[in-house]
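Notes, Module 5: Reading structure tokens.

Key idea: the token line is not a picture. It is a compressed description, and you learn to read it the same way you learned to read a sequence, by spotting repeated patterns. We will look at two proteins. The first is printed below with its tokens.
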Amino acid sequence: MTRIFDILFSFFGLLLLSPIILFLLIIGLFDTGSPLFKQERVGVNQKPFNLYKFRSMYLNTQAVATHLVQVSAITKWGSFLRKSKLDELPQLFNVLMGDMSFVGPRPNLFNQLELIGERGKRGVYSFRPGITGLAQIKKIDMSTPQLLAETDAKMINHLNVLYYFKYIFLTVFGKGFGDRVSK
């Protein structure tokens, strides 16, 4: 049932937000010369997919979990994008294509072996990854793999249409946040 909402919301979101997306692309060109960021992530059933975001870090930043990245790797424009959550807008393409859902466990990198193990034990990868979810609402990031996997499993086991909208609503109105960056 939530897949229907994913398709409708991502399609109309892309349509309505296309002027903002275009504007952010142009500003991103001036910031780093490459406004879109594409990275291979772990998807449903541990199959790889390319996650899209607006670039918030310098071009040669190492591909590690966000909590391992230094603040100095983030551009000033990127800091604004992250705080406003606008860096997530290109993920609407991922949702429309079926790689992601609006609600689900945040997709991790393939080099996050401890998290992959913890999520694998709990069946988290049987579910489509999402832009937001219970872990983001509770401010749990990828720096605590076991707690994150437990929270993801709890969300998946109880997810229904009501919780789907609740997590989206709470995220839009400021409750959720992305992974922490090292100071």
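Here is the second protein, with the sequence above and the tokens below, as before.
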Amino acid sequence: MIAAVIACAVIGLVIGSFLNVVIWRVPRGESVVRPPSHCPGCDRPISPRDNIPLVSWLLLRGRCRNCGTRISARYPLVELATGVLFGAFAAKFGADAALPAYLYLAAVGVALAMIDFDHKRLPDALTLPSYPVALVLLGIAAVAGAGATPFVRALLAGVALLGLYGVLWFVYPAGMGFGDVKLSGVLGIYLGWLGWGELVVGAFAGFLIGGLVSIGLVLFAEAGGKTKIPFGPFMLVGALVGIFAGHSIAHAYTSVTLG
């Protein structure tokens, strides 16, 4: 078990390195394959020895080997976050056939969160393909032994959360981007696979965290009513709460309220 978690974490570090390319290029409509990664200062391609996740950045002290241009600390942080999420999902799901689906969610979630922070939008190039990817990977898990029940529940949950966000966007479009609506269905699928409690907790947690952060920005960072705050990252963090703690939270709530 520990070996599997470590292996997934290492894979996550490697995937995180690629996600840095995705985060930079996808919003600009650039290919994520060509040209190879290069220094923005001297434009020289980054050699394989300088492209080892986390290690290279530390050894080079956050600077380009050739020209000394500073490399943002966000690059290793993205790698680290992806590695931690991969390891956490491996620890939660173990050898479950649904693990690949949630590893994909971790990867695309990191990319979408960072792009939303930077550009205040969630690219269709990442969000829309996540629907068939989720359905295929979870469909394989259903055939592999999970059965039809969680798969059907995932479909219904995806439609339900997509419908909720659609209504909210229709009623007050200024308060939510349509990219958030598109993302909601994906998150609904993943939360619904685990259970209705996970879906409710994950959806509510996104609104709760987003609301608290928004209030904090207004009170302490002088954010005004017209300040654009990306909601996608809060949706994704809320989904993580639902995935990892949704069952326990839902069970505790129903125990207190319903006995």
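Summary for the second protein:
- The first helix runs from residue 2 to 25.
- The mean pLDDT is 92.
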